[in-house]
Amino acid sequence: DVFNGNDGMAGIKRSNWEGGARVPLIARWPGKIKPSTTSHALATNYDFMATVADLVGTQLPEEKDGISYLPTLLGEEGPTHDHIVFSSFMGPAIVSQDGWKLRHFAKEDIFQLYYLADDYREANDILERHPTRAAQLKDALIKACNGDLNNGRFNTREDILLSIK
Question: What are phi and psi for residue 106, nearest 5 degrees?
């Protein structure tokens, strides 16, 4: 059973299932962030540096992929991601702003496609029914991984250490 009890989402931490990657972002800043507001904007760990840079008024290096979510926190319009990409011990995955998710299983070199708005538990692979959407997401995922899907897979502690050097 791949369900971890995280509202029935599949996955364990460091996996490319939603239950292994999705976490809530909770922020409190009296006088700046309006209490009890909710946003469904995509945000990822690599957005944190851009947000802090925005907060302190410094420029982020151009080679960074992050987008500041400070405007979203302040209830303003701001830049958004078309998609986010993340790595895991299983392989990389990509999630689009409109809810499509493509997962890659490196060990078997297979892809699975889900539409999270209808299937947040990732129970029904719909890749065969949506080959065009799957191909678009696969192209974006490969590009984000610099042409090598193994860039989005961590097997061991050594893989992780090599990726940050």
Answer: -65, -40
**Is 120 in a helix, a strand, or coil?**
coil
The size of the chain, in residues, is 165
- For 8, 20, 72, 74, 77, the CA distances from 38, given in Å and listed in that order, are 21, 22, 10, 11, 14
pLDDT in tens, 16-36: 667 666 777 888 999 999 998
The predicted model scores a pTM of 0.78
Q: Which residue's structure tokens are 């830049």?
A: 79
Nearest residue to 145 (alpha-carbon basis) of 135, 153, 134, 133: 153
Residue 146's identity, in one-letter code, is N
Residue 84 sits at the vertex; the CA angle it makes with 83 and 85, to the nearest 5 degrees, is 125
DSSP codes of every residue in 12-80:
-TTSSSHHHH--------TTTSPTT--------GGGHHHHHHHHHT-PPPTT------HHHHTT-----
